[in-house]
């Protein structure tokens, strides 16, 4: 065993939390990416000489280790072929659909699995190299499920935590995976495994008992080699301060008012903000809205639908097909019900600055979050946080992790039930101010007291305690 590293806290994630910026003079610098995870972990990074191990996002990119204000960054290179096999293939065309209720059929290819294993070994080796003796290592998400076990075999001194940001499926689906035992054993290399929901914890525990030699003893799993592993739910959240500050910014509020005018000052603005992903139920909500227009329950003067779709995984075939389907649907609805200057659906295929995003949230009377399956869904939490005015209504799918915490204040819906979705969207539009305020207060109280700093603190405290 060699302990060569100096960091007593190491995060391992598919992506580094920085983006490369090339100055006009041709020099490369790095800018911290906006994510909530990196912001929540920054104080821990500073306090413990933290390091972050991840990929830069470009093929064959292996800059020397470098530092930002808060942490050391260790780039793990991926070749163009590995991006195709490990990232677009096994991560996003096998695991992603399998873990999201097989909404599209997962593909099982042995060469994708081989690449996944090799890349996981590379990430584990990089983490083993930077970690100081007895360091805490925090591994993130479905791309790196083998890292805990590989890392433990290299460095048994480490304390290893893992957090899965997406759902963990039930036996009926997970059992399809030809490499189910290996994935479970990979995860069981951790001391603490965090999931978004209690249901995922239950799924994992019963699968671990079924397909590995582990057995549940009280609230712990004991592996066949006698190690104790805890699995627990840690529902992730957002940077409440950042969203609330933007929401109170007069410029953002002025922008929200302008957006309302620009879409024709309808009585109701309905908003969807999602990565363009087949898990998000964009088609279901557009279908429901189109039917409301068809049956004249709403007119384009009453209500417009604003759908922001962030470009995502554009090289994966299922995402290209989805884009065509959504854009066909938007075109149909506007062709049938739009008027010159007043389309019924405003569709934006683009990424936005945080301030613009919060302005959209402030402009929306009804936020429509209807995933068919979602680990958590941060947009729902961002919406209620942005509503410092206690106005607006949240339509939320039962299949989002956020439904566990936000079920009482939101208008919960089963997105597969198009009539139910229509009724719920109408109810959210018609809710009176007093009830809307009461619901929004409940929602905000919960999110404000459960922000991402608390999530990071709870997870790391539980990890240190095991
Ligand atoms: P995602 O599937 O990406 O995350 P989500 O939780 O909604 O989904 O987070 C998306 C983030 O991107 C939000 O912060 C949102 O504001 C931002 N965003 C969306 N569209 C944008 C746009 N056009 N421009 C700029 N920003 C945009 C995965 C899981 C989720 C889980 C999170 C965190 O799928 O279930 O909640 O990780 O664990």
How would you describe this structure to a colleague?
With 466 residues, this protein is of the alpha/beta class. The protein has two domains: 7-236 and 453-465, Glycogen Phosphorylase B (Rossmann fold); 240-448, Rossmann fold (3-Layer(aba) Sandwich). It is built from 17 helices and 18 strands. The strands form three sheets. The chain has a ten-stranded mixed β-sheet, with helices on both faces. The chain has a six-stranded parallel β-sheet with strand order 15-14-13-16-17-18, sandwiched between helices. It has a two-stranded antiparallel sheet with strand order 2-3. The protein is globular. The structure holds adenosine-5'-diphosphate-glucose.
Question: What is shown here, in short?
Answer:
The protein has helices spanning 36-47, 80-99, 110-130, 147-154, 171-174, 180-187, 198-211, 240-248, 250-262, 282-294, 317-337, 354-363, 378-386, 403-406, 418-430, 433-449, 452-465; strands at 7-15, 18-22, 28-32, 51-55, 66-67, 72-75, 131-140, 159-163, 192-195, 215-217, 220-222, 228-233, 268-275, 303-310, 345-349, 366-369, 393-397, 411-413.
The number of distinct β-strands equals 18
Indicate the proportion of strand residues: 15-25%
The tally of helices reads 17
Mean pLDDT: 96
How far apart the termini lie comes to 23 Å
- Low-confidence blocks of residues: none
Strand order of the largest sheet: 5-6-4-1-7-8-9-12-11-10
Overall geometry? globular
Per CATH, the class of the largest domain reads: Alpha Beta
Oligomer: single chain
Q: Percent helix among the residues?
A: 40-55%
- The number of domains is 2
Largest sheet: 10 strands, mixed
CATH architecture of the largest domain: 3-Layer(aba) Sandwich
Radius of gyration: 23 Å
Small-molecule binders = adenosine-5'-diphosphate-glucose
Pfam family, one: Glyco_transf_20
Family: Belongs to the glycosyltransferase 20 family.
GO molecular function: alpha,alpha-trehalose-phosphate synthase (UDP-forming) activity
Protein name: Trehalose 6-phosphate synthase
């Amino acid at each position: 065993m060699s302990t060569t590293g100096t960091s007593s806290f190491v995060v391992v994630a598919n992506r580094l939390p920085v983006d490369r910026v090339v100055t006009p003079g041709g020099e490369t610098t790095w800018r911290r990416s906006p994510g909530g995870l990196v912001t929540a972990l920054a104080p821990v990074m500073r306090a413990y000489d933290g390091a972050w191990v991840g990929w830069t996002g470009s093929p064959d990119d292996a800059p020397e280790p470098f530092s930002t204000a808060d942490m050391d960054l260790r780039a793990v290179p991926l070749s163009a072929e590995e991006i195709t096999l490990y990232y677009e293939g096994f991560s996003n065309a096998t695991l992603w659909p399998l873990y999201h209720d097989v909404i599209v059929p997962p593909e099982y290819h042995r060469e994708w699995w081989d690449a996944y294993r090799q890349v996981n070994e590379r990430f584990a080796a990089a983490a083993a190299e930077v970690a100081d003796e007895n360091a805490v290592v925090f591994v993130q998400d479905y791309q790196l499920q083998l890292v805990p076990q590989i890392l433990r075999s290299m460095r048994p001194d480490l304390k290893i935590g893992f957090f899965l940001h997406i759902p963990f499926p039930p036996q009926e689906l997970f059992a399809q995976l030809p490499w189910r035992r290996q994935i479970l054993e990979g995860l069981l290399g951790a001391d603490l495994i965090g999931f978004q929901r209690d249901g995922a914890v239950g799924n994992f525990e019963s699968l671990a008992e079924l397909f590995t030699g582990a057995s549940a003893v009280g609230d712990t799993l004991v592996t066949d080699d006698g190690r104790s592993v805890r699995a627990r739910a840690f529902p992730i959240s957002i940077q409440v301060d950042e969203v609330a500050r933007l929401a109170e910014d007069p410029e953002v509020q002025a922008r929200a008012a302008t957006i309302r005018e620009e879409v024709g000052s309808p009585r109701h603005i309905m908003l969807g903000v999602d990565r363009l992903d087949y898990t998000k139920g964009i088609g279901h909500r557009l279908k429901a809205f189109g039917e409301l227009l068809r049956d004249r329950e709403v007119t384009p003067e009453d209500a417009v639908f604003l759908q922001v779709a962030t470009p995502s995984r554009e090289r994966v075939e299922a995402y290209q097909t989805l884009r065509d389907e959504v854009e066909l649907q938007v075109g149909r609805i506007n062709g049938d019900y739009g008027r010159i200057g007043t389309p019924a659906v405003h569709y934006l295929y683009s990424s936005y600055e945080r301030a613009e995003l919060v302005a959209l949230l402030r402009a929306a009377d009804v936020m429509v979050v209807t995933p068919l399956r979602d680990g958590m869904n941060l947009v729902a939490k961002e919406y209620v946080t942005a509503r410092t005015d206690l106005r607006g209504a949240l339509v939320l799918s039962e299949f989002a992790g956020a439904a566990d915490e936000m079920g009482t204040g939101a208008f919960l819906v089963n997105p597969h039930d198009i009539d139910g979705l229509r009724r719920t969207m109408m109810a959210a539009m018609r809710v009176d101010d007093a009830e809307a305020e009461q619901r929004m207060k409940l929602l905000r109280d919960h999110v404000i007291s459960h922000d991402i700093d608390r999530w990071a603190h709870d997870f790391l405290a539980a990890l240190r305690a095991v």
